[in-house]
Amino acid sequence: MKILLDFLPIALFFGMFKYAEGHKEWAASTATEWLGFMVSGGVVGPAEAPVLLATVVVILATFAQILWLKARGKKVDTMLWVSLGLVTALGGATIYFHSESFIKWKPTVLYWVMGGALLFGQLIFKKNGIKSLMGSQMNLPDPIWRVVNFSWVGFFAVMGVLNLWVAFNFPTSTWVNFKLFGGMGLMIVFVLAQAVYLNKYIKQGPTP
């Protein structure tokens, strides 16, 4: 359930972009009507309208995510607050400057923030972030927890670079596809590979 909630803003971004891309004149007039007061020059053209409308949707969806969690009395993860801050700042710049470059940086910055938090937590504060999240679900030797933690650091670092490569070397529509399907697909592959690696340790049972 949580992973579906986490990917919901991305899915809505994808849906709005694809719809607007197929209806560019509608997208341009709608974006100008809704966002004209926020954009430089006051007019949104057909080329940039799809990504601008999708950006508005992802900002609103992230806000809605937090409000829904708050309404249910659930804790809002720190990374969700960071995501809201990034999507609001970079999305706002995308809207104002009519430039998709800003919003394209958002996944990379978020990946690197998450990876950096795990890295500095392990090296500076001697706290294993992955063990803190998953320690109640499995019992592993500390050296294995360190391997798991650093593997996530590496994964987030690579994903950040990969996002930039796709974002600035391919059409925006390709990046939008990668943002949803590529990001989710690679995450699933990574998690499955890690599960295979950890399986032999889990079978050993609790460690002394």
Quick rundown:
The protein is mainly alpha-helical.
Which helices and strands occur, and which strands form pairs?
Elements: H1 2-22, H2 24-35, H3 49-71, H4 78-97, H5 101-123, H6 129-134, H7 142-169, H8 172-202
Structure description:
The structure is a single chain. The chain is elongated. It is an all-alpha fold. It folds into 2 domains: 1-99, no CATH class; 102-208. The chain has helices at 2-22, 24-35, 49-71, 78-97, 101-123, 129-134, 142-169, 172-202. Mean pLDDT is 90; it is low at 204-208. The chain contains 8 helices and no strands. Helix 2 packs across helix 3 (49-71), helix 4 packs antiparallel against helix 5 (101-123) and helix 7 (142-169) packs antiparallel against helix 8. 79% of the residues lie in helices and 0% in strands.
Outline: elongated
Structural class by secondary-structure content: mainly alpha
The total count of helices amounts to 8
Major sheet details: none
Question: How helical, in percent, are the residues?
Answer: over 70%
- Average pLDDT works out at 90
Membrane topology: Multi-pass membrane protein
Organism: Polaromonas aquatica
Keywords: Cell inner membrane, Cell membrane, Membrane, Transmembrane, Transmembrane helix
Family: Belongs to the YciB family.
